[in-house]
Amino acid sequence: MRIALVGERSPSVRSHARIPLLVRALRERDGSAVDAYWISTADVSGVDGFDGIWLVPGSPYRDEAGALEAVRVARERGIPFLGTCGGFQHLLLEYSRNVCGLDVAHAENTPGARDFLLTPLACTLAGHESRVRLEPGTMMERIVGASSTVEVYNCSYGLNEDYKHTLAGHGLVFSGHADDGTARAVELPGHPFFLGVMFQPELAGDGRRPHPVISAFAAAAARHRLIGRTA
Q1: SS (H, E, C) the chain
Q2: pLDDT digits over 153-210, tens only?
């Protein structure tokens, strides 16, 4: 199976350095026949040909429109999608604009806009670990196999909580929250796999054992590949 890693690869981004280790672990520990390809947000024209799309950390991306297009293609065409950190933020932005019809922006990308969906956190989470409470019955809870999990963050932007009700009203499920109730994970029921997490599962452990979120995404991509071959 082929997975698109959408984002600008950089040796200075810790999660990018971890991803090759995780791909190897998926092959060796999980038995996943996975090939991963880096795709710049400046040219996402071929992402619809992949079995999975992973919008990786590392924002601001070179091309916001390209990042949002990768999310849209995955959402509309039923391609398994994982958004981590900046990918979580842009999942929310794409859904807000194209499904909810909101004229909103990301404060990191468009500081002069009028209404912001993604805003600076009151306290940055860069380099911090924090508990995520998982909603019962959600895909996220099934993936982790527990009611909560402690995860690693490296972000400074999060959802403007004023928009959570609108997003939920249009079908998104907020499946993970911080202790203060702010959003940490979101998923789309009815889609084969459409998940965004504010934390960085790439940084869990030492890279030799894939985080359950990453393993679940790879498994969904494998199912997508199999369905494509038998359709």
Answers
A1: CEEEEECCCCCCCHHHHHHHHHHHHHHHCCCCCCEEEEECCCCCCCHHHCCEEEECCCCCCCCHHHHHHHHHHHHHHCCCEEEECHHHHHHHHHHHHHCCCCCCEECCCCCCCCCEEEEECCCCCCCCEEEEEECCCCHHHHHHCCCEEEEECCCCEEECHHHHHHHHHCCCEEEEECCCCCEEEEECCCCCCEEEECCCHHHCCCCCCCCHHHHHHHHHHHHHHHHHHHC
A2: 988 999 999 999 999 999 999 999 999 999 999 999 999 999 999 999 999 988 889 9
